[in-house]
Write a structure and sequence with these properties.
- There is one protein chain.
- It is built from 10 helices and 19 strands.
- The protein has helices at residues 83-86, 98-107, 135-146, 158-164, 169-172, 174-177, 195-200, 231-234, 243-248, 267-276; strands at residues 3-8, 73-78, 112-118, 128-132, 182-186, 190-192, 208-210, 224-228, 282-284, 289-291, 293-294, 297-298, 305-311, 314-324, 348-360, 362-364, 372-375, 384-389, 396-400.
- A 7-stranded mixed beta sheet has the order 1-15-14-13-18-19-17, with helices on one face.
- A hairpin with a 2-residue loop joins strand 11 and strand 12.
- It is globular, with a radius of gyration of 21 Å.
- The protein starts with a strand and ends with a strand.
- Keywords: Membrane, Transmembrane, Transmembrane helix.
- It comes from Aureococcus anophagefferens.
Length: 401
Amino acid sequence: MRLRNQFIWLVAAGGAVVGVRWLLERPVRCGASALVPEAAPEAAPEAAPEAAPLAAAPPAAAAPPATPRRRRAGILYLRITSATEATRAGTSPWPQWLPAVEASAAANADEVAYYFAGPATNFSCPNCVSIPTDLDALLGRVEAHLGVDRAKVSVKSLKHKICDLKPMWPTLFPEVAAAHEFVGYADLDVIFGDLAAEVRALRDGDDLLVPSSWYPAPLANGNFLLFRSERRVLDIFRRHAGWREALTTPGYDVYDEWHGKAPERTFMHALLEEHLNGRLRPRPTARLFLQDVVGPRNLWDRPATVRVRWERGALTAAYDGPCVCAKDMVPQFSIAQCAQCVRRPGEKLEDVVVTRELEVLAYHMLSAKFHVRDVEPRLANCSRFDLTKADDSLKHTFACR
């Protein structure tokens, strides 16, 4: 007998762009080379709560811009290419699905600015800023803002070492942190929906915006976090063990995550200790941060079908397939779960079919990114696009609709 759970969650799409504020690029001094958004002429907005002022940046850093905080939050992306990648002619250092990230960014322009640190790139989104950065510049920031001699920074895998640094990114880019009430990071393989709504919902007492599946524990994750731009929050990593070892350990120390080999030396330990001791007030997102893989399982493994649609700032995910129960403490497969999972964690229930469609905050392409083959060139300017998987292969396609 096949049971069928029917759930259709209808949520009003609130992601329409109601206004766009343009960014003017301003270069800053070498050693902290960034372009920081300036205010554009506009009607006086409703006063937003101001964060406590940041402590003065070290002398080597560029001074924060003397401009109003027009956008409440700033998100950092950091991509440093290896020497081999940098010399590979005709190959973009940024992922081929970047137009989808740009479209999502533009739709969130009222509340969020996006900073891309790495190889210089021209972006179509008015709230996107390129921060030309290479490994040498990054190590200079480590010395200036973390007080660690660059000679002691050990890098076996550049990509993974950058992940270890994620909790430190806002400190490494103080000019970005100083320009916003909230600052954080995200993975480039994440497509956001209405992030602006989550930022608008933040209140004076909120210190951390964390995906709901990681709340109340483990809080730490390398996918997406927003911190209040105050030293007591941004310096949490300094007050706990692990961050220096993450810099000096050659391999990936998994410091930014919750599943490292030494949990007491991870950012998870730092955040949870601060939270449990009443010094950190995290807030979970209202909508699901959806990931497409947990362990060996893909969300879209047959016979399941998955469709992800972005339309004017709203992101909708649809799932039709067997119930899949998470075994981890983080229920990353929430869209495919069913009530039976309470007693059967870690199982795939072939006799229970889940049909569900709901608006989500984000879709994390942990597995799909390796199979993206086609991205429509005009995607960044589309009002609606889909991410779909071919019926007869693993091929994934981004296309305007």
